[in-house]
């Protein structure tokens, strides 16, 4: 009997291939592939170790293999695989459901070219992604990856569903997107965050904290207003619906990652002594009718300073993504990474601590923002701390000319907030320093478009060499712009929400709308009905965009604003 031939696609660090190869008998031949080139994996010690293990076992390894074009990767006599594995496929950081469906569809169609007669395709998905009744919880069909329908495009049917068992392949670690700030990341946002923390750590003792769960129950958002945070009005709110028919599977269906996040969040923000942390976390989130994506890490301040292990005089550091509705502007982003420094001290030492922190912060930022300047060039960026009208807080501004005269402006990259004495610590004052890491990275590397930070194009990270800060060079030159105007009648009974108008445009266009310009307002002389006209400009920074695609998005946008904003397109 011929030995079984297994093909593994989309391997990230080859941990699955290395683990699986050690569970198979010697007659089984494994070919492990990944999309990356060897040079891209050279800096990953886990990948290097796994590749060495595979080579020692005689496993065939191929690089640069596109799972949607498998016939191009294998000669006819090297095909005929008995089984193909694809674990946790994903297009990238900001890819939506449609893009991931497309990936699955092309993968299945590609499989039929290299699969032996009677062969199998094994795909591992996160709970709910498949869109089948076997998923617990089961997503709505339109919000799933529709795995059965995508497989049918390649001529396959679903014949079995079973849980993915990490115990069966000890050592396997999924390398899907886990955030820019995680340990393996080489993203410039992580680099700038580590430099910022390290420099401030030279002046103050550090205590790094972690709170990965980004959903806030409605009752927890009151903390934001306590610390002068005005972002709550622009928060992304999510309404939760209780489905009693599936109440048991709601708890059972939470993935291990989500369970870890819930436990961490419950211990950090929702803990009630004497109660089970998982039970409380479940009630804390699913017991709410509304939750929001956190608009600021300030939401966690109260929990940090009330913790029994809070250390006055030490900088407590939180880092993570935050989310805010915002107008479509060049340096305004709906999602970005924030680092929050929390410092507590005796109220009698307020002036000394405040001046020390501001001096070290300004010195650190000035140093970071001048690293990419060429020898002999003048300082093009300067950090300013602008005193606010309440006479106790500051905003941190940077004047930059790096992105051309049209973009020269004061950019707010952070804030310094001081507070009165705490109820818990009556003899202490607190300072909170919030930094927008995405804007800071853009300024340091000269990245003119914030969307580039979220690209899943591998060429982006090739610009960043460990230990060096050099100006970013875009790999997309002269992308075309497409302009469309839209006019609509307002509903007399409802107030028009322009921020929501921008939010819908951002969602429908998948962030390809770079500008929305108000053109005119018209009032009908007889009916008194009001019409508004706007101009939308479409452009991408990292991928191709055709006129046909833009036309489709504009058509969809007309439908969405009619449904969600109750206007009548003209």
UniProtKB/TrEMBL annotation:
Q: Decide whether keyword Glycosyltransferase is in the record.
A: no
Q: Name one GO biological process term.
A: rRNA base methylation
The regions listed as transmembrane in this protein's record are none
- Write down any Gene Ontology CC term: cytoplasm
Q: Does the keyword Acetylation apply?
A: yes
Print the keywords alphabetically: Acetylation
Signal peptide feature range: none
PANTHER family to which the protein is assigned, alphabetical: FERREDOXIN-FOLD ANTICODON-BINDING DOMAIN-CONTAINING PROTEIN 1 (PTHR11538:SF26), PHENYLALANYL-TRNA SYNTHETASE (PTHR11538)
The protein's name: Ferredoxin-fold anticodon binding domain containing 1
Taxonomic source organism: Ursus maritimus
């Amino acid at each position: 009997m011929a030995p079984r031939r297994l093909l593994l696609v989309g391997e990230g660090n080859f941990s699955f291939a290395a683990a699986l190869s050690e569970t198979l008998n010697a007659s089984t031949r494994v070919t492990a592939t990944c999309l990356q080139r060897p040079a891209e994996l050279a800096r990953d010690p886990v990948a290097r170790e796994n590749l060495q293990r595979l080579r020692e076992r005689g496993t065939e390894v191929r690089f640069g293999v596109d799972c949607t074009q498998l016939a191009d990767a294998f000669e006819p006599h090297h095909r005929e695989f008995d089984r193909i594995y694809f674990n946790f496929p994903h297009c990238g950081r900001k890819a939506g459901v449609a893009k991931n469906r497309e990936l699955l569809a092309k993968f299945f169609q590609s499989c039929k070219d290299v699969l032996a007669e009677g062969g199998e395709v094994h795909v591992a998905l996160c709970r709910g992604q498949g869109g089948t009744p076997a998923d617990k919880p089961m997503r709505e069909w339109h919000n799933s990856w529709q795995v059965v329908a995508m497989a049918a495009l390649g001529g396959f049917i679903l014949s079995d569903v079973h849980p993915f068992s990490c115990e069966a392949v000890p050592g396997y670690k999924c390398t899907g997107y886990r955030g820019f700030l995680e340990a393996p990341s080489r993203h410039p946002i992580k680099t700038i965050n580590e430099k910022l923390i390290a420099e401030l750590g030279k002046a103050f003792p550090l205590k790094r904290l972690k709170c990965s769960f980004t959903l806030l129950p409605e009752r927890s958002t009151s903390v934001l207003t306590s610390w002068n945070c005005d972002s709550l009005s622009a928060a992304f709110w999510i309404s939760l619906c209780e489905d009693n028919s599936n109440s048991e599977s709601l708890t059972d269906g939470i993935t291990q990652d989500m369970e870890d996040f819930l436990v961490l969040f419950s211990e950090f923000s929702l803990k009630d002594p004497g109660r089970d942390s998982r039970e409380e976390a479940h009630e804390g989130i699913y017991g709410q009718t509304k939750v929001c994506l956190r608009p600021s890490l300030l939401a966690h301040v109260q929990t940090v300073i009330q913790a029994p292990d809070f250390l006055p005089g030490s900088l407590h550091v939180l880092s993570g993504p935050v989310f805010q509705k915002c107008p479509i502007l060049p340096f305004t982003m709906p999602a970005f990474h924030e680092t929050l420094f929390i410092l507590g001290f005796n109220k009698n030492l307020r002036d000394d601590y405040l001046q020390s922190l501001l001096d070290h912060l300004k010195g650190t930022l000035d140093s970071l923002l001048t690293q990419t300047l060429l020898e002999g060039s003048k300082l093009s960026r300067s950090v300013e701390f602008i005193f606010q009208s309440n006479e106790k807080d500051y905003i941190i501004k940077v004047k930059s000319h790096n992105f051309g005269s049209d973009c020269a402006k004061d950019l707010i990259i952070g804030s310094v907030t001081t507070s009165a004495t705490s109820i818990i610590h009556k003899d202490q004052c607190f300072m909170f320093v919030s930094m927008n890491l995405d804007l800071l990275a853009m300024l340091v590397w000269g990245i003119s478009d914030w969307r580039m930070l979220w690209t899943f194009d591998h060429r982006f990270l090739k610009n960043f060499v460990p230990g060096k800060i050099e100006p970013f060079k875009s790999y997309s030159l002269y992308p075309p712009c497409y302009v469309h105007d839209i006019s609509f009648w307002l509903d007399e009974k409802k107030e028009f929400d322009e921020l929501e108008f921008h939010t819908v445009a951002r969602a429908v266009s998948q962030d390809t709308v770079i500008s929305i310009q108000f053109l005119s307002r018209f009032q009908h002389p007889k009916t008194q009905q009001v019409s508004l006209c706007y101009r939308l400009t479409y452009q991408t920074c990292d991928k191709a965009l055709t006129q046909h695609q833009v036309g489709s998005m504009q058509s969809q946008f007309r439908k969405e604003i009619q449904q969600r904003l109750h206007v009548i397109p003209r």
